[in-house]
Design a protein that fits this description.
Elements: H1 28-42, H2 61-82, H3 86-106, H4 111-126, H5 132-146, H6 151-163, H7 167-180, H8 184-203, E1 218-223, E2 228-234, H9 237-251, E3 256-257, H10 261-276, E4 287-292, E5 298-301, E6 304-308, H11 309-314, H12 318-333, H13 336-347, H14 351-357, H15 364-386, H16 390-406, H17 413-424, H18 431-435, H19 440-450, H20 464-473
Parallel strand pairs: 4-6
Antiparallel strand pairs: 1-2, 3-4, 5-6
Helix pairs in contact: 1-3, 2-3, 2-4, 3-4, 4-5, 4-6, 5-6, 6-7, 6-8, 7-8, 9-15, 10-12, 12-16, 12-17, 13-15, 16-19
């Protein structure tokens, strides 16, 4: 295989002289210097740009001179970047900013000065200065407001939003540039922005790949006898699956298994497909239990997922069913029950009992294990019956949309299905709404989040297997 070459920078170092560059690394030792250099300008107002110069309106001679001087400092900054002397580069950018700011005050109709100043703000962020990208976004947005023909403003807005972690806005401005420009190099650059923004969004959403090794998976406190910090409780895959098995044993009481092997196999195939498209392999499989119940509901805990036939009858297509199942699986991937157990054991007054159980080493595997299972079962059942915390639900909404999308489904059914549920019985919410409250803000937040997905490709909405299953069960309730 050919060795991987350094990724070229998608931006021109000089507006009139495109070239490629390596992405500069950012080190803490010079970030502090960069912030000090930026401090004097942080509180300044942006210079005003009034829009493009009218035809025949002469430009003050100072503008051309200022642009040439500013460009010299920009070139010096880029060279410093190549040399990885970021403090020197930021100092050169600050000098260029000062010249361009004064030039715009002298000539507020200079598009070149305005666009180049936006480039300076962008590169301050690109060189690692905190606040550089937001500055570029605010200023370049103003430029576009008064000068809709400023392609450069749209171009650097796309890059600024991309580097700020806002793929939706990055794609929006990249698309706009691609509609107003015919420059093949610029079109290719914007296409790369869109592709990079999509990859960053679709690949950087999962935060718990190292959950079992994180502080969220353990309770640590000071041991007065040994004078050391001791791990009182450690979440493991075995603990998660054991508490889930105990919780589901209690949940299953009063429910009758569906007894339809075709439906059972179909649901298991959907869950297996979703898990295969998820961010990291769970250390345990997830088995599906379908039960007879008119409730439109589903529950999930590590290793188990219970689906009510009321949900199967209410869903109109496979994408709606997947939206719910993916959301439930997201609770597992986010380790919500285990995280709540750890949090409660830190905050509740019965945490003292937990500490006392660890006093004798050979009792850890017995008394402490039983305590963790008992308390964990209580926590899991409480989450299911009373509902997850709002933050947990919002996290599951985000994760669920990614899991569904990765499996090839249209994730927009996440919000549309909940809205349909609410409209079906808004005065007496369906059980699924009682445990997953569709706060207006939450629906709005999820809807906005869904707009980050690249939905141009064809995504699955339904299947013959789903409709056959729905027909066997009697359709909508």
């Amino acid at each position: 295989m050919e060795p991987r070459r350094p990724t070229p920078c998608p931006l021109p170092i000089h507006p009139a002289d495109p070239r490629t560059c390596r992405r500069m690394g950012v080190f803490l030792v010079w970030v502090a210097v960069a912030q000090l250099l930026a401090a004097p300008a942080a509180g300044q107002n942006f210079p005003e740009y009034l829009g493009p110069r009218a035809t025949g309106q002469p430009a003050p001679s100072v503008t051309a001179e200022a642009l040439a001087a500013a460009q010299g400092h920009l070139d010096a900054a880029f060279q410093a970047g190549w040399d990885q002397d970021y403090a020197r580069g930021l100092a050169s950018l600050q000098q260029a900013e000062g010249i361009l700011t004064e030039a715009l005050r002298e000539d507020p109709y200079s598009r070149d000065a305005a666009e180049t100043l936006g480039v300076v703000y962008f590169y301050r962020g690109y060189f690692g200065e905190e606040g550089g990208f937001p500055q570029a976004v605010r200023f370049l947005t103003r430029v576009l407001e008064v000068d809709a023909a400023s392609v450069a403003a749209g171009r650097y807005l796309a890059h600024s939003y991309h580097h700020s972690g806002d793929p939706r806005s990055a794609r929006l401005y990249a698309d706009w540039v691609m509609t107003v420009s015919t420059d093949p190099n610029l079109l290719s650059e914007m296409d790369e922005v869109k592709r990079s923004a999509d990859l960053a969004f679709l690949g950087g959403w999962y935060e718990y790949s190292d959950f079992y090794g994180s502080d969220e998976a353990r309770v640590i406190s000071f041991d007065a006898e040994t004078r050391r910090m001791v791990t009182r409780l450690q979440v493991t895959p075995e603990l998660e699956t054991q508490l889930a098995a105990r919780s589901f044993q209690q949940l299953a009481e009063g429910y009758r298994p569906l007894g339809d092997d075709l439906t059972q196999r179909y649901l298991q195939s959907i869950v297996d497909r979703l898990m295969a498209a998820s961010p990291v392999n769970l250390p345990y499989p997830v088995a599906v239990d379908a039960v007879e119940s008119d409730q439109v509901n589903a529950y999930a805990l590590p290793g188990r997922l219970m689906v009510h036939t009321g949900l199967l009858r209410f869903a109109e297509n496979e994408a709606e069913l997947v939206a719910v199942l993916a959301h439930e699986l997201a609770h597992i991937y986010a380790h919500h029950a285990a995280r709540q157990l750890v949090l409660d054991s830190r905050n509740r007054d019965w945490a003292g009992a937990l500490i006392s159980l660890t006093g004798i080493r050979d009792r850890v595997g017995s008394d402490l294990g039983r305590w963790a299972l008992d308390r964990g079962t209580e926590v899991a059942l409480d989450l299911i019956h009373r509902g997850y915390q709002r933050g947990h639900e919002e996290e599951a909404d985000r994760y669920g949309t990614h899991i569904a999308f990765n499996a090839g489904y249209n994730p927009t059914f996440m919000t549309s299905f909940f809205i349909r549920l609410f409209e079906a019985d808004s005065r007496s919410p369906i059980r699924l709404l009682a445990t997953h409250p569709p706060y207006a803000e939450r629906i709005e937040s999820t809807s906005g989040y869904l707009e980050n997905f690249p939905l141009e490709e064809e995504l699955q909405l339904d299947s013959r297997e789903f409709q056959e299953m729905r027909s066997r069960l009697g359709g909508a309730r």
